[in-house]
Amino acid sequence: MPTTNRPINAGSSMNDDTSRLDGVAKVTGAAKYGRDRYLPNALYVALIRCPFGAAEFEGCNEDAAKAIHGVVDVSVAGKECSYHGQSIGHVAADSPQAMVRGISALKVKWKRKSVKTRISDSVKENPAIGDKAKSILDSAELTHEAVYSTPVQTHSSLETHGGAIDYTGDRATIYASTQGTSSVKDGLSGPLGLSQSDYEVVCEYVGGGFGSKLGGPGKEITTAAKLAAKYKRPAYLFCNRSEEHLDTGNRPSSRTLVRVGFKKDGTILGGEVRVWGGVGIAKGGGGANIPSGRYQLGDISKNSEDVSFNAGGPRAFRAPGHPQAAFAEELMLDEIAAKAGIDPLELRKKIVKDKIIQEMLELGGNLIGWKDRKPNGSQKSTMRTGYGMGVTSWGSASPGGEAEVVINRDGSVESRTGTQDIGTGQRTTMGIVTADAIGIPLKMVTVRIGRSTLPPGPGSGGSVTSPMTAPTMTAAAKDAKKKLLNLLAQQLTLNADDLDIKDGQVTKAGQPLLSWADACSKLPNEGISSDGGKAESGKGGSQGAQFVKLQVDTETGVIRLNHVVAIQSCGKVICRKTAESQIIGGVIQGLSYALFENKILDRNVGTMVNDNFEWYKILGPSDMPHIEPVLWAKGQTGIRALGEPPTIPTAGATACALFNAIGHPVRNLPLTPDKVLLALEGGVA
Amino acid sequence: MPDNAPPSSRPDMSPPPPPVQPAAGSTCGSGCGCTRTNSTLVAASTNITPEASAAGVVSRRFFMKTLGVSAAATGLSAGADARAASLIGEERRIDGPPIVGPDPIDVTLSINGKAEVVKIEPATTLLHTLRMDLNLTGSKEICDRGSCGGCSVLVDGKLVNSCLMLAMDAVGTQITTIEGLSKDGKLDPIQESFIRHDALQCGYCTPGLVVACRAILNDKPKPSLDEIKTGLGGNICRCGTYTNIFNAVLEASGQSPIMDQKGV
User: Fold this and answer.
1) Is residue B74 classed as helix, strand or coil in its secondary structure?
2) Architecture of the structural domain at B105-180
3) Residues B87-104: tens digit of each pLDDT
4) How does the average pLDDT of chain A come out, rounded?
5) Where in chain B are the domains?
6) Span B249-258, pLDDT tens digits
7) Strand arrangement of the beta sheet that strand B158-161 belongs to
8) How far away is chain B from the Cα of A624, in angstroms, using its nearest Cα?
9) Which residue does chain B place closest to A39, by CA atoms?
10) What is the rounded average pLDDT of the residues A169-181?
């Protein structure tokens, strides 16, 4: 059944009507995630973690923990810890209750050490301007110098990291919560003590990942695997909510200094950008993508370095390095526009490089009602309205991964690939492209994904899953169809070139020839399968533009989001509903980053003070504006990236809208009421 | 929907198992780490009888609340909870309310219209009982402290975070979980509407949100958008499905979904 509430997107996809194939499993609670796998006789495992930002392990009462009824294994490797949540061992027990009692009985003693918790603990002042940038600024009519900063954002996947391992001695099944079914398989042979042919990684459903579940099995699944092998029984290790905030990656914090010179007409001459990425104890991974390359910013130089402090390190997080950069870049542009006295939408139309984005700016401005925007800071009422905008883009990917299509004698069709569906709709898009390529209704296709015994597919990262797997699956389906038609032609002594399949009917020269069931009944016992065919190559990148309208209560500093228009291109859309959902979801994560999210560390002891969902706030239903996802279908070909681009510009656009409403920029995410009030008083927030 | 009989009596509460008898002077034997002696254990255990519970005496949880040690509110671990119970047993053993545990007890719960007997430690939450003892894993553990709504169930028709309720305290109530919303393979209209509007992505928060939406519709047959937002205030979704959830509720209640613009 189609939905009619987004007429602007009608007809924009290969399949406008289809609902997610795993919808029933997910709305009834039948879908089994890794964390739902409570296996008989399982060991329950928890990691022992440092409660401080920096501390030396001084000892613990291992015997007391081992004496707890039900505790099976206690292991502590004493060492220096340099972040809250760092693990130094584990407790394994017959039940979760015994596991918790074992952990608390340990009574670990720590000697605290001094900590650094922020970029500003190391970066005290701005470095002197470079010679080239200085000469640009000296000769410019107008200049802008500012520091933009963003906090650490945690992925906050609702299913935490971990796995349940069904170990039978000579075989194992690993129920993993992962974005890389194949890569988890690759890392477990040693810990399990089994050859790769003797175990299977299963990941039919994943409760969110957003980048944090890419790569190998991680310490959670590895620890469980070792214990399963040691005790020859199933093992279960999933982080709790606190551990998830502390030790499963994050979007690093950033501090961005910009110094630019520009003309009165808004032409940006150049200058310099210096970025500091807050990477915790990691050595790198803090880069921010500014200048983004989406705008003509003149001759701008960049210097980037990472700053370490006592916190867990970053991991890839939905468009790594982009949202923090877009926040700085978009707000910088609005400040430049304000100084030049020109409309920020007009400034962007002038300097944005991509022609499609230029067209999107026109459409988005109309959809959000940009004509009603009042000049920055011109409103005097208590409630003030603001409009902001930002743009996004993403690169291309080539086809890849492996896929197999099987046509059985009973007419059923299997679409098989090992990739996992992290919520994007991978299961559904695989079904749609298979049905489309063969020419049969979707309901005849069974999609099998999320198993390491299926043809291996890519990890769900970099927005490449659809661009890689959809062409590969399409090619396999087309090849299977060709094999079927050749076989029929042979049996019926017809010319295969005259045969086709349409709406589940085999046709000859356009006329119905055989029903699907009759055609498939002529297949050999084993049916036919194909994992070949030449995949159509990639067609380029994706573009987008977003517009935010909000209201600010100048007495309380509270921001109320009203309306977001998010226009996005992504090539040929496979499934309209899931594509719209990707855009809406990206916007919501961006809004949440703009207004609420902040991993706060105690500056004295380095302990995260909001390691839960009461105090680490993410956007909730009552914070929601009306969000309009617009699929840009004009002239689009190929399957392109969609997962990451829609979350890039949202926080920047929101900050621009706030600047418009109150006339003062808040250059420091999240845009909390205290900062809004400070800015209203003319302070630097 | 289930009737709204107040849970004044607890006829389903089975007698407790015989107390464990650890060696004198040892720990209590339950593995909870406490150093309670045998006599306390006996006093604590014998304090609960079917008669006492049938008489509707104050529940242990209520008693704990009066001491300010409500397990859920303070986030006590299961072990700590049991220790708190033992503290009550020692100091108020005669005059206090019935004390059960810390050893597992048989509890009968009415879930999705079916009586289910489970053997659980008294400090076990309804959520863990559903997930681990009954394999009803649709209710998700996400925060385990009442701040996400992922474990939402209906208890006598009212929306409850099952991570904040002890299973024992649900005795005598009618519990509906996500698994009980669809009957004989026929989905609840709100479930149909969720699928149609793609009001789900990874699906992990979805069961809790579906149950919360059902609670809204039970309360208000035609909720306004603001009422929907308020009604879902206890739920969060990380993928960002709220827009489509609002439309799913509107449509399931016979109202028009929020229209986007036609384009300019």
Assistant:
1) helix
2) Roll (3.10)
3) 444 444 556 667 788 889
4) 96
5) 105-180, 189-252
6) 999 999 999 9
7) B114-120, B105-111, B174-176, B152-155, B158-161
8) 8
9) B132
10) 96
